[in-house]
Amino acid sequence: FYLPHGITIDQEDNIWTTDVGLHQVMKFSAGSNQPSMILGIRLTPGTDESHFCQPTDVAVASNGQFFVADGYCNSRVMKFSKNGTFLSYIGRNYQMNVVHSITLVEQLDRIYVADRENKRILCFKAGLKDEKETGKFVSSLVRKQLGRIYAVKYDPNMNVLYVASMLSGRGFGSTIGLLNGEVIATWHTGRNQMNLMTRNQNNKAMPHDIAVAPNGRAVYVTDILNEDNPLFKLQY
User: Fold this and answer.
1) Would you state the pLDDT for residue 195?
2) 208 annotated ligand binder
3) How many CA atoms lie within 13 A of 89 on its CB side?
4) Whose CA, among 149, 181, 189, 198, lies 20 to 30 Å from 205?
5) Is 5 annotated as a binding-site member?
6) Which sequence spans correspond to the domains of the chain?
């Protein structure tokens, strides 16, 4: 690795990583320290089907197809077959600005995209059963209280989206109803409230990624400003 950014574990316990320094995506089989698949050209950013430019995240469907958030430079989502063959682009015509995180909702055939600098979550058809449906626009979620959206992850147990954001220099999390797009709860950083994000002496935080436990009982958030204790857990 050179500058690893995102990590995803799929339903077969494969581990997927993105490296924004190498401009690559890697897949590791469970228990292996050698990648079984590498996409992208090492240390070579680009805009075509075989290149990434600082990819940030991966989402994997149960049929093996996977999606790459590409990312800081290209601001697009790329869809691949199980064996790594490029299939299609998603969102290139929507002026996205830093595609920082993605999450799949398979039962709705949707992929949700954290369009960080535009402070919104875009939803597109994933095309898991019909490739012609891939990339069709579904909706845009914009809430002023969310600020810049760094991470979005779906919890099928609660049927909600968990979001990590920055607003006015403050890091925090939100729970959003999947069906109505409304903010159900906010994980504040106040001392007397649910203190998920702010743990360092300067009362600053930068949440960067989210993972949801398979049973939905815990949500994990990374904070890249807190090197001593970068992982926080919201327990249900």
Assistant:
1) 45
2) yes
3) 17
4) 181
5) yes
6) 1-142, 145-235
